[in-house]
Amino acid sequence: MKLFTITSAKNRVDRKTTLFWFRRDLRLNDNAGLYHALRENEDVLSVFIFDTVILNKLENKTDRRIGFILSALRTLKQQLEDAGSTLLVVHADPVDFFKSVRPHAVYTNHDYEPYARQRDENVTKTLSDKGSVLRTYKDQVIFEKSEVVKSDGEPYTVFTPYSRKWKASVNKSDLKGYAVTKYLHHLSKRDPLPFPTAKDIGFEETDNGIAERTIKLPVIRNYHRTRDFPAVQGTSRLSVHLRFGTVSIRRLVQIAYANNETWLNELIWREFYQMILWHFPRVEHGAFKPAYDRMRWRNDVHEFEAWCSGQTGYPIVDAGMRELNATGFMHNRVRMIVASFLTKHLLIDWRWGEAYFASKLLDYDLAANNGGWQWAAGSGCDTAPYFRVFNPALQAQKFDPELKYIRGWIPELDTPDYPKPMVAHAEARERALKQYAAALNN
């Protein structure tokens, strides 16, 4: 019998069972919530819930993230079975699932997104009504919520002072891993349970949702020299593993301190955006700087479609979009270029681009994606004024001078099949500056 529904799963959980709920932490090692669950209980069953509230909103039934999650869960399930336990996989609304079971307790790790916060409040109430409890722990960041704030208790809204305070605040105990293996004997002893296919949860199988889980120290050591060149394997490519927690942030920060401060700063940027989303959840739908909500975007649908498909006539922009569409990944420097082009050259609402990235990126993270798009649009946490407009041609000359990256994605470059630039840079820049000025000076 398949155990992917509430009905088929609830008889596996009783008042003696403690559940550990895997979410953005798909690993056994150095997992804060799992460590506490195992140390404090003697019958811990692991569960992963394919959240139908989230999945039902995904229109693309070949979403690569489903493939990645399934791959990570297979690894996790095998590790649990090697320890004499198993993984219970459920396809349901989490609140409905917890209404159907009566565990001794549920342990999990914090999630900071607005939907997750509301979901966890609802689960907490549901469990409380049954005489149970939800216990949550900090795991996916070093510092969360208000742990790094100004001297007056207010949150930082500029990265540089935040990063200084972050570095001044961190100590060895913050980076110490959790010895989960010491307590694996407290896992619930169960026979292996069935495992779903993508079709079981309403999706199609994909063959490109797998990302290598390897920490490449030579790349990290040279990160400050190579990170801006998309034709070079100069970035860690660990963002998807951070997103789904298949690697430990504590381990990565230890490595960053030992090898490269520039890479450490990127990890701190991630926490900065998580903190911004926590304190200012309104940024999910509106500008961090409210004045930018007065912006009158052109929002030309045909131009947006050309941008999405990599047919703008600007090679560095088109290469990036084609890479995204084909692989679910885009180099970070190129992300900035394509976002600047959409918002400044085409004057299309940053939320359109943010949503498109959300539908395509394997490493999609609400806080980081939102922060990056608002940075590009000028509406976010950035001291630079709105008139920063990347010149795509100059960006290509600087960061892909031999066109290796561009030609890899645009084989028809320099042929009649490649479109002419859809807008002239100088004219687009002047138009953007006027439009922004008009909106902000109203």
UniProtKB/TrEMBL annotation:
The record marks W297, W350, W373 as: Electron transfer via tryptophanyl radical. Coiled coil: none annotated. Binds 1 FAD per subunit. GO terms for molecular function: deoxyribodipyrimidine photo-lyase activity; DNA binding; FAD binding. Keywords: Chromophore, FAD, Flavoprotein. It holds the Pfam family FAD_binding_7. FAD binds at residues 223, 235-239, 263, 266-273, 363-365. Residues 16-142 form the Photolyase/cryptochrome alpha/beta domain. Its cofactor is (6R)-5,10-methylene-5,6,7,8-tetrahydrofolate; FAD. It comes from the Bacteria. One of its GO terms (biological process) is response to stress. Belongs to the DNA photolyase family. This is DNA photolyase family protein. It comes from Chryseosolibacter histidini.
